[in-house]
Amino acid sequence: MVISVIGVGYLGAVHAAAMAELGHEVIGLDVDAARVDALQSGHAPFHEPGFDEILQRGLASGKLRFTTDYTDIAGADVHFLGLGTPQRADGFGADLSHLEAATESLRAVLPSRDGAPTLVVGKSTVPAGTARTLAAGLEQIEGVTLMWNPEFLREGFAVKDTLEPDRLVYGVRDPEGPRQAVEMLDAVYAQLLADGVTRLVMGYETAELVKVSANAFLATKISFINAIAEMCETVGGDVTDVAHAIGMDDRIGAKFLRAGVGFGGGCLPKDIRAFLASAEENGVGQALGFLREVDMINERRRAKVVELAGEMLGTVAGRRITVLGAAFKPDSDDVRDSPALDVADRLTAAGAEVTVTDPQALDNALRRMPELRVQSDLDTALRGAELTVLLTEWSEYRELDPSRAAGLVAAPRILDGRSVLDARRWSEAGWELRALGRGPVAPAPDSAAEALART
Ligand code: UGA
């Protein structure tokens, strides 16, 4: 099939290359000429494991290309809409302007296939009701049908999640209506369906709600365990043990119970806010009011890291602090709403001399915060630190050797903002370790005096 993917940001670029991988002829379109040029020359504009390979394979096979020109995509059988829906500048709602503009530009080049069925498939995360509104305009054009097919990929696993999804959700105008559009989308995903992936057909609004509900549930799970972390800090307790024990109940499940500095990124924070805004617009704000609390718990974790840093140092003003991590999560160079960068910013505002290190995300971090002091070499970043704060759990930080690291820093104090370090091992190597939701771990008596003598 000939497929277009309109909007080749994170989601769209991965989708386009994955569709070429499935054997389709794919044209990715974006209004950002620099992004299109980068992709067309085989350079991924972001860090995503496995993406470079499928991009280059698609380009080399001639099945994948990129353009800025809508007339190039006019003849496609299926047009995917992969536009971003960021938070609006003036509130919590989703900014649908990119999606609306792209739909208008697409309308202008349709129909181009003499009335042959043409499928437009929305993949963006949108408030319930968006698909029905867009369909009203698009379906006036002969042969055009709109479906909504939300995407559930995770950064860091984007290629795998696209080619081996847990499920495919098809949102249609009328689940009991004609099947032609469903069959067309089945043809796009034929290989995945043959591999046994479940496909669920439902109404537009249900499909839109599946997507936002999934993200809201994940955010709620994280904030739930972070709320328990607050309790542990107050009454004495270890949140990692609580998470481990409750996660063994398979009705609860162990995933997404990692307490720490909380969630960030381009999806969960803006999606829960947009969901809340949409509920309020529909007069059911109370039903989703708890999402405001989910957001506030998440926000408080960042403030807690700064408070703990202050406790460990007496004051952070004028002190040298090294922050491990800038990306919102490991295996990504995405710094959108990154808890790590936000904490670095707060520490800087409180007068600390902050150095941030990250294996992939420093360029993006500097684009967002040009005044940030960054250091790409981990050892150099650690040198002279009076406090080290781990905020993104890259494997190189999880696997840091505490004895070697103690030889680099000015003082062996570490704040584990993701609860990934072996507290005993670090304490035995002479470190004072604090983690969110866990009591203080004092250095082991023997090594402590020796290591702290150097501070
Ligand atoms: C999220 C969803 O997981 C995807 O299913 C969805 O498709 C995507 O948003 C989207 O809407 O596009 P992603 O933003 O890539 O994916 O990241 P997650 O893996 O969900 O992590 C989000 C944040 O939660 C990260 O900052 C991570 O560090 C944090 N997190 C995750 C925790 O603090 N604790 C956990 O236990 C898990």
Termini Cα gap: 66 Å
Percentage of residues in helical conformation:
40-55%
The profile of the biggest β sheet is: 6 strands, parallel
Relevant CATH superfamily of the largest domain:
NAD(P)-binding Rossmann-like Domain
Low-confidence stretches: 451-455
- CATH structural fold name of the largest domain: Rossmann fold
Q: How would you explain this protein's 3D organization?
A:
The chain folds into 2 domains: 196 residues, Rossmann fold (3-Layer(aba) Sandwich), CATH 3.40.50.720; 251 residues, Rossmann fold, CATH 3.40.50. 44% of the residues lie in helices and 14% in strands. It has 19 helices and 13 strands. A 6-stranded parallel β-sheet has the order 3-2-1-4-5-6, with helices on both faces. Strands 10-9-11-12-13 form a 5-stranded parallel β-sheet. Helix 1 packs across helix 3, helix 9 packs parallel to helix 12 and helix 12 crosses helix 13. The C terminus is likely disordered. The structure holds uridine-5'-diphosphate-glucuronic acid. Uridine-5'-diphosphate-glucuronic acid binds next to helix 9.
Which properties best describe this structure?
disordered C terminus; alpha/beta; Rossmann fold; 19 helices; 13 strands; binds uridine-5'-diphosphate-glucuronic acid; 5-stranded parallel sheet; 455 residues; 6-stranded parallel sheet
